[in-house]
Structure formats: C-alpha cells, structure tokens
Amino acid sequence: MFSEELEKYNWEEITDKIYSKTESDVAEALSKDYLNPDDFMALVSPAAAPFIEPMASLSRKYTQERFGRTIQMYIPLYITNSCTNHCVYCGFQHDNPIKRIILTEEEIELECKAIKRLGAFENLLIVTGENPRDAGVDYIERALKIARPYFANLSIEVMPLKSEDYYRLTQSGLNGVVCFQETYRREHYKNYHPKGMKSIFEWRVNGFDRMGEAGVHKIGLGVLIGLEDWRTDVTMMAIHLRYLQRKYWKTRYSVNFPRMRPSEGHFSPNVVMSDKELAQLIFAFRIFDHDVDISLSTRENRKFRDNIATLGVTSLSAGSKTEPGGYFTHPAALEQFEVSDGRSPQEVEESIRRIGYEVVWKDWDKSFDHV
C-alpha cells in the first residue's frame, strides 16, 4: 500500500530539495523526454519562475500531441451534504449548523434531467459528504443506477470505500473515482481532520490502491491548495501517481489541485497560491506526465480558465452547482464552496470554440473495452 511507500519520504527533506533547486536544474529537466520526481521538483520550485514561457510552450505541445485541440466537459452533482467528518475547512463539516439534505431517488432523477437541459453533458461527477450510515454504498449505487440512462460516463467523489465496494459499483455503471488526499503531510493531517473516518490518514491515502485493485477505469488524485506548502504536497502527489501507474498500469489517471475558496467553515488558507504559480504547476504536471488528465473546476475564475485552456488543461466543469439538489430541487441550499466561474455551459463552450478548440462531451464508453 502507498502508506508504506510514503514512509520512504521525509516532508522536510523534500521541501529542502525543492527550494534548493537552481535554474540549471530546471533547464536540465526541460531538456528531458521523461522526467522523474526529482525533475518535477525543479519545475515546481521557485527557480522555475523565469521559465514560465518555455514551460507553457512545452506543456501545450505535449497536450496537443496526446489530446489534440480538445477540452472535455463535465459537471458535478451533489446529492447530499450530510457528513460525519469534522474537516476544519469545509462548509459541510459535521458541526456546522446547516440544513442537511440527502436527495431522494426521485430528486436525483430530477437533478439528472435538469442537468441534461443545461447542455450535452455525458460526464457526471456524483459528489457526497461522508455519511456511511445514511448515504453509504447502497445509496451511492442507487444514484449510479438512476444516473446511468442519462450519462455515458459516471464518476464519484465520495468517502473512501473497500475494494469490494468499488468493484460492486463498477458493476453498476461506475467509470471513475475522484478522491482528494487534501494533504500528504501525515504529521499535520489530523489538524485539519480531527474526527471522523477522514481523520485516519492511512485509510484515505490507501484508498487509491483499493480503487486500483477493484479495476476502476479512471482514478483522480488531488490535493487542496491552501493547507500546507503546495510545492511539497504536489510533489508527493506526483510520487503517488508514479507509484499507481507502475502498480495499476491499465488504469487512467487524472489530477486536480483546487485552490481554497470561501466556505461556511470560515477557514483561512495557510498558503495562498497566485495565478502564475497555479499555471506553473499545471505546466509542470503536463511536462512530468504527458498522458494524465488535468482538470480545472469552476473554483477558478473565468479569465484564468480561458487563458489556461490551450496550455495543459484537458477537462473543465461548467454550470456547476456545489449544493445538493442545486440544479432543480434545492437551489437555495448551502454551497460546499463558492463558484468563481458562473458562466453557463453554452458560454464556456463558445469561449473554447473561439480559441480554436473543440468541446468533447464524451470520451469513453465501456463498450469500447470489448472491441
């Protein structure tokens, strides 16, 4: 399991290595066709700041070679804000005095129909809080079965599950799983997750192994930018990605690194990442791994999303509602985070087409596996 692999790496030592990188280290990394984690450290280091333009050019080149001039569209569907965790940065955390909503089967279907009226979405991300008693595997499975007739590709962002549960869900229409480790800094992890199942670092970080064992088609990794030093956290995620690719080589992978947005939790970020630094990170990940899907949500503003669309990102959300039932049944419920790009899917699509790129609403179907 990856928790054992992670013991080989010391947070402070990795941090020191990143901040000791020089411009010659960056230039050497950019000259390579295949990068190792040490090269990645150079590309996310402060020393890489003067290399943003050549990094952007290389990132665009690799992205177009692997994905063409396309952007895939997806949309999240929050089906419950009920949660037993106490994450200090999240509006859904257990102690917040908010109205808790668990959508009924009828409401889930109404939300699916409302989303289809928004645009030609075929990629749906189903999101829940972590409440295994009232919104556990059975509930998630029912949601997948309800959504399957409306969408070709179904992913979930839910509590980490057992391997057999992930496999069970793949038999009910599941294509992908997204999970945010939030931070790889084990010694500080519980400061942000003091109670609940999410407080168990090993259970969460080893969830990706369980996904791989279950044969999940696509696994999404992510860290939350704002908790710890972002350069070290994303380096740990790059190491994790390489580990998973070696062990579960048939699986596709995606990465996401959302910057913290205001929420009902009123948590002030410990680290603030600039737009330029986020662009540097996106370029670094594309140069590090030419095939990984890089996703950007509506947390980011319109201008940044438009500018980065041709430079390394391959998936964008649009028209997102981050409250349960926000598309139709409960439009006034509390959002998990504040959306920054509030354009309609049609407006985002038109913006993508204006820059000479094609919008892809669907990129994979299970039937293709049998061709």
Automatic annotation (TrEMBL):
Keywords: 4Fe-4S, Iron, Iron-sulfur, Metal-binding, S-adenosyl-L-methionine
Protein known as: 2-iminoacetate synthase ThiH
PROSITE patterns found in the cross-reference section: RADICAL_SAM (PS51918)
GO molecular function (one): iron ion binding
Cofactors required: [4Fe-4S] cluster
UniProt xrefs under SMART domains: BATS
Domain of life of the organism encoding this protein: Bacteria
Occurrences of domain Radical SAM core (ranges): 69-297
GO biological process: thiamine biosynthetic process
Gene name in the database record: thiH
